[in-house]
Specification:
mainly alpha, 196 residues
Length: 196
């Protein structure tokens, strides 16, 4: 996987994926200088996620989509879009959970940390596992929101209905991601590591 990370971009799309990563780092600096440290912290949470696709050797379109999704989710917090646009919270939970669940499945498959099946030979298991990963990540995020509300700022909206809706929509997004994992070629054919 280190070879994937150190590999120079071979296409314009791969270079664009690296530009998205650079925008993530620049976003943290911009929010720290012109907004506030809480916003910078939210954007900093996205930085490790922006690097994972590079390690995995995913196709450029997956890398760009994943990075852009994380950055949209983080910047939506900075510009308070979750409160300003009705339903935006659910749209972002759907997309972000789908992206995270997909990459989580690929990470488990690539690192062989936990035995997950080859997506091409176990479609139903792939969809179920990806969905469960998404639901677990949704629950983890909701706990982070609760901790933020309890210990950092009471401006963070938490509530039973919001939490359940976020997790349900995230689970649906993760199920869709499971279908993509099972049927779409997400990794470069020359990616280094165990075959997916």
């Amino acid at each position: 996987m280190i070879e994937n990370f150190l590999r120079r971009p071979q296409t314009v799309a791969e270079a664009c994926a690296d530009v998205v990563r650079g925008l993530g780092a620049l976003s943290v600096i911009i929010t720290a200088v012109w907004f506030d440290l809480t916003d910078a912290g939210v954007l900093a949470l996205a930085l490790p996620g922006l690097l994972i696709p590079r390690f995995l050797g995913v196709r450029a379109w997956v890398d760009i989509t994943f990075g852009a999704t994380l950055l949209v989710a983080a910047w939506s917090n900075v510009f308070d879009l979750y409160a300003r646009i009705v339903g935006w919270d659910l749209i972002v939970h759907f997309a972000c959970t789908a992206a995270l669940a997909m990459v989580a499945y690929l990470l488990l498959r690539r690192t062989e940390t936990i035995a997950v099946p080859d997506p091409r030979s176990a479609v139903l298991a792939t969809v179920l596992i990806t969905t469960m990963l998404g639901l677990a990540l949704s629950a983890f995020w909701e706990m982070i929101e609760w901790l933020g509300y309890t210990y950092i700022s009471d401006e963070i909206f938490v509530g039973y209905d919001d939490t359940i809706a976020d997790m349900a929509v995230g689970g649906l997004g993760a199920a869709c991601a499971g279908i993509a994992v099972a049927f779409a070629p997400l990794l470069r054919s020359a990616a280094v590591g165990p075959a997916p």
